[in-house]
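Q: what does this look like with 6-O-phosphono-beta-D-glucopyranose bound?
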Amino acid sequence: MNKKGFIFDLDGVIVDTAKYHFLAWQRLAKDLDIDFTEEENEQLKGVSRVRSLEKILAWGNKTISQELFNELMGKKNEEYLSFIAEMDDNEILPDVPRVLNLLKEMEQPISLGSASKNARTILKRVNLLSSFDAIVDGNDVTKAKPDPEVFLIAAKEINVKPEDCIVFEDSVAGVTAANTANMISIGIGSKEVLGHATYVFSDFTEISDDFIKSLIEN
Ligand code: BG6
Ligand code: MG
């Protein structure tokens, strides 16, 4: 059987943690008298914690000391982790287990490619840690998406050439990263936001078994 490498982003693809990132950043921004919209939030998706805070501060025209910056990053993560602590496998997004099981059945290597430093904690909470042959996350990279580093490492870890990899992504930065890595990008979300992806689906319920099989065969 043909082997492709299937790389999954985590936040907003496997679980709906994108909403928790948004909530935690929004509360923190409010304390700084900065407001940002859900549309602006699209620019934070897939982006590292450091880069996210830099962007929020830029939107509010604020400069702060390094000490306060670090303090705020810690505060955001604490709040975010308080949401994560309540999660269980009910929060796995619809039909993600079906696709993961199909890939396993078809003996396809599966890797995680996430910007998050909390990836393992989340996968443990929703009982998906053992579904991945490799896990590459925010602790393994020096360059954040849209840089392709995270996906290139993820491909290497499962021994698949980048051009034989398929990436599932919900963020603008992540789709760009996958494209730059010369991989097929599958956007999960809206066509308006993720128009640069090779394919776009609103969620996994729209991705048929036949479509997955055609990716493996071609
Ligand atoms: C990405 C999220 O997956 O991880 C971003 O889309 C987040 O919103 C980034 O900022 C870093 O996550 P964490 O958990 O390390 O703060
Ligand atoms: Mg994401």
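The mean pLDDT is 96. Residues 5-16+89-217 form a domain with the Rossmann fold fold (CATH 3.40.50.1000).
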